Amino acid sequence: MPTFQIQHITSYLYDRPVKESISQVRIFPVEDDHQRLVSSELYITGNPIVAISTDYFGNKVGNFSYLPPHREMTIDSRSVVHTSDNWLPPSNDLTTIDQVAGYVEKDIRLIWLSEPERIESQHIIEQLLFETDITEKPVFEIAKACCNYIYNQFQYQKGITSVETTIDEILAHKSGVCQDFAHVLLQMLRTLGIPSRYVSGYICPNKSGMRGEGATHAWIEFFLPDAGWVGLDPTNNVFAGPYHVRLASGLNFTDCSPVKGSFKGIARQQLTVFVSVGYEDGHVFENLNDVELNLEPSEGTEPWQDLLIAQQQQQQQQQ
User: What's the pTM value of the predicted model, to 2 decimals?
Assistant: First the structure.
């Protein structure tokens, strides 16, 4: 059972004092049969009370406020996580799309996760599905074929997509990073009626050459009635396993953003994110990114989308 020591520090700097920062975090590693949380600590500037709740998708969420005037705020998450190394993909699962549909109609959450986003280039998605040759294949093989198609036909390239890049734009140039590939794979599977969800977390392969080591990462999970949620990482064309540490899941990135919030004041902001992953062999991988928000200052409470955009920028730069 692999063990990882993970530190995730999010720091906000402002060029003049701001006040009444209200934040929401989803930086708590999942606890289930495949992942065990040994310890978890959260340090926040000003030591505010963090109200813990569970969201619609079952994610653990922390909400807090830092009210006094301040020019910086740091959110420091430290976790020790065990992941299971004996999980095997359900390769002998022969569940068909029609059989999955029978489960979907009984669960409103599965219905929601089975509906594709409305995009102008849906005909391209249908063409991609045709090219994967999924005719009469079980759901497991369909998902694997779609993942393989994205890995081989889309180019992994940093900087070509922005935080506002749509699925239509990704399909136009067939390139991007992990969250782009995850969104395309979700669109393909949901077009077929296969319940699928976006997953945020970390990838911790310890110098194996996989993309995204030590940084926040994104992949997807698709639903099988007997196996449950099965993770697929289109960025690396692998099933999510012991080197994928999960934080949250949802319809898309917005539901899984590690940090988002708002504040009052007229200030320019800078976001710095540091991620450190310690391995059992003593190796430590560290990743530091400075993200300029490039936002025009405004009076009053700025929308939380501004910080969400910053988090997405950081994620794309890391991968």
Answer: 0.89
Q: Which residue has the tokens 């399909």?
A: 171
| Contact by Cβ (8 Å): 230, 100 | no
The alpha carbon dihedral of 196, 200, 206, 212 has a sign of: positive
Q: Please give the domain boundaries of the chain with CATH numbers for all domains.
A: 3-84+257-318 (2.60.40.2250), 97-255 (3.10.620.30)
Q: Per-residue pLDDT tens for 198-249?
A: 999 999 988 777 887 766 899 999 999 999 999 999 999 999 999 999 999 9
Long-range CB contacts (within 8 A, 24+) of 121-125? 121/167, 121/168, 121/171, 121/172, 122/191, 124/171, 125/171, 125/184, 125/187, 125/188, 125/191
d(CA 219, CA 147): 10
Give pLDDT tens digits for 263-313. Answer: 998 888 898 999 999 999 999 988 887 664 544 444 444 444 445 545 544
User: Of 222, 131, 231, whose CA–CA distance to 174 is shortest?
Assistant: 131
Degrees to nearest 5, angle at CA 266 with 291 and 49: 75
Give dist(CA 186, CA 188) in Å, integer. Answer: 5
